[in-house]
Amino acid sequence: MPDRQSTNDNNPFAPPPEGQPDQPWQPRLPEGSDERPAGGPGWSSSQPGRSSDGFGSRPERPSGGGQGGGQGGGPDGGQGPGLRWDPTDPAQRRARYAVLSGMWAFFFSFFVQELALLLGALGAYWAISALRTRAKAPEGPPSPAQTAAAATANRAKQTAAISGLVASALALMIVASGFLVHFVYRDFYECRADALTKQSQLACNDLLPKPLQDTLGVRE
Known about the structure:
Blueprint lengths: L89 H19 L4 H20 L11 H41 L1 H9 L3 H6 L6 H7 L4
Helix pairs in contact: 1-2, 1-3, 2-3
């Protein structure tokens, strides 16, 4: 019958020595050695060391803890220093809406002016509303991390709102100039719409000033 004592002290699956009760597993060290693994009871001394690029090191847990720690959230579920946008803040949502509406309004101002007018008006409204809305004050004295996070979120909100306001204003100016041209030279546009032949359309160019005939007039 084989002896229960293993000849290899580094074998983690070896049975305990004869006459000793079963104990929870831990790395076995040579007799007379007081060395303990640096990584704690869960790491063996025979494990390879950490490399210079950080491979093999334990992941550091964020100080906030909890599920919100991945995005810099604190234990109270608030906004941490790593979170630039808070989806629950209506001012930041309006700033995002203003950016999207302003960009699409500027794009459609060259093709569909009615849609550009609607999007530009919505973008300007959302941008002004976001700029006028103040951030909610935290309950109790704010920590330095909360103060830094609030300042970062406020700068991001202002940047987005101002960008959306500028894009919306440009789109509204382009649409307004188009409507103004149609109103001032409505006789030319009515003549072009009622003309049945190419020659009659070319005759409508006489209703425009000469500097604008090459730009707005009918080309041969």
